[in-house]
Amino acid sequence: MMAIADLSNVLKLFGGSDVSEAHLNELFQEVLLMTLARAANADVSIQHVEVETIQRILKKHTGKEFSSADVRVAAREELYAEATLVKYLRGAQRKLSDTQCSEVVQALAEVFRSDESVSGLEIDFFNNVVDALNVTPAQIAGLVAGDV
Questions:
Q1: Is 8 inside a domain boundary?
Q2: Residue 148 falls within a domain, yes or no?
């Protein structure tokens, strides 16, 4: 499990320091966890199926196991007292690759679809994340230009 509560990558991110490749990978994992966990709470009701979906997605993208407690702790709003999630994501977007930002958004859509109903609050959350990560409609659709 990663140290969620200390938000060490957030401090490095906003501190303006250069971030190593290892730290960029940790940052991606942190962004993914925090965004998906907050997404589960976007409609003020964390569903068990959403937590399971988040755990599966995190395992797929990071190779690491996260407990339901890890996900629920990361969903707590108090973790964002210093910086809102959107501000955090805007800062992270400058360090992450376009592919990583797209992966976060695609995973977010998967979480919202997992409980078979999408609320207006979840749509607003999705749109705010897409805007903060500067992901294009083509990236959301999974369209990537290839070499011809």
A1: no
A2: no
**80 vs 4: CA distance, rounded Å:** 12
pLDDT digits (tens, 9 = 90+) for 72-107: 888 876 666 545 888 889 999 999 999 999 999 999
Which CATH number does the domain housing residue 119 bear? 1.10.3680
**Cα distance between the two ends of the chain:** 41
Place of tokens 């709470």: 41
Instruction: Dump the DSSP string for 43-74.
Output: TS---HHHHHHHHHHHHHHHS----HHHHHHH
Strand ranges for the chain from DSSP E: none
The total number of structural domains in the chain stands at 1
Distance CA 69, CA 121 (A): 23
